Amino acid sequence: MLRKAISSCVAGSSAPARRALLRRGLAASASPSDSPAEGHYPGEQTVPFVETPTVQIQHPHPIPAYRIMDNDGSIRAGAQPAADGIDKLRDEEAAVSMYATMVRLQAMDQVFYDAQRQGRISFYMTSGGEEAVHIGSAAALNPADMIFAQYREPGVLMWRGFSLQQFADQCFGNCDASEKGRQMPVHYGSAELNFQTISSPLATQIPQASGAAYAYKLAAQQAGKAEVDRIAVCYFGDGAASEGDFHPALNMAATLEAPVLFFCRNNGFAISTPIADQFRGDGIASRASGYGMASIRVDGNDLFAVYDATRRAREYIVREGKPCLVESMAYRQGHHSTSDDSTRYREIDEIKHWKENDDPLLRTRAYLEAQGWWSQAKEEKLREVERANVLVALEKAEHKDKPALDTMFEDVYKVMPTHLARQQAEMLAHVAKYPDQYPVGGH
Question: Do 329 and 423 belong together in one domain?
């Protein structure tokens, strides 16, 4: 009523008079009894009111990173991993198995990298510095969880049972390669191990993971289940988080409450671009709150912390039926790929520092030795065996035949359509007509 009275008086007054009336009216209407403490907006949003306008960053302080084990392998005082996380720390067989897989991954990287430099394979990417990220997270997942990886998570696939021979066959693109030679090296995939085949374009897997997770949710609802049987797990780097696919994927997962675990490997560089030149926010974990999503940041060089953080995130997703973002903080010790020379954009001393002072394998090994579970003799034996196994797989893969030409038309459709069958026939006829131009069947 007061505002209506003011409006009617103002309408018939001069400009100075109108301003005076407005000032008096607004002052009268601003009594504490008339001022709500909050406002209600579309989408059932309740927002508190303030009288002092402030332009500010929501999170002025860095989000802390979860750590259990320090660089020397000692367990931090006050560390409180979840029950299963404590069991992993106390379980010699589990801890040694995780470490041994990290060593196997490192051995494969060293041999395959050298093979590329020798011209035996065309391309390769190493995982140096991120072994604990792969193995720690993979060990915390359910084997039925669907993995949508980028191209630097071979350890996840290795933990699930992908053999050295399968890795080697894929890199050589031979007749036994899972994708029949139709992918670049390191673009692995396995339907049996619930690992979607990797694609080169950056960040394409992020919205795919959101869609798959929503499908799992709908399937569970249709079956009358209170919780999902599996979740989607999407790995990506800090560089991929700058791609256009990132926003709609996380927004979709958050609004539809899809059971997906977004796992960001923040290793410091998007190829040659350091994170300081990528964004001004507090890493990637800080973005989760903008989507209304839970998140946790973890020390990616701490095997047990990565395991525990991933396990907690998965439990949250299944329990709450909502997505979660994990950001692991690590350092990419090697080049981005065999097509890159990282010493052009970072100092050799910097790389050396990380290898010597904050390496995930050195930290894990120190812990195992402190428990009396490991020794120099065991270390030498393990590395000798793993290197030999990689060399055997490499030699076998190199001498296998290439896939038959007609296999390039397979797996495109469940049933080959007429137009594709016609193309296949034309191609085979052409090769048969000019056999000298198309030597096939060898290696």
Answer: no
